[in-house]
Specification:
By secondary structure, the protein is an alpha+beta fold. The chain is about 35% helix and about 20% strand.
């Protein structure tokens, strides 16, 4: 996955507010994505399949919005 793919997926989110969270791409995560509420950081694995990227981004964004709890 490339940065441009992540930006595209994030920009496709309904009700997304730029600047609310920091988005990161990581090559060290075994999970497709994770949300750190303490730092307002969402990390997406560089190994997330493109076919699942939007779903992972939307899922992690829902954590930040409080729609899905840990």
């Amino acid at each position: 996955m490339r940065h441009v793919n992540l930006v595209s997926a994030v920009n496709s989110l309904p009700n997304y507010f730029p600047g609310v969270v920091h988005w990161r791409i990581s090559t060290s995560w075994k999970h497709y994505g994770t949300t750190d509420w303490d730092t307002n950081t969402i990390t997406i694995s560089a190994f997330t399949p493109l076919s699942l990227l939007y779903s992972v981004v939307a899922h992690e964004w829902s954590h930040e919005q409080g729609l899905v709890r840990r």
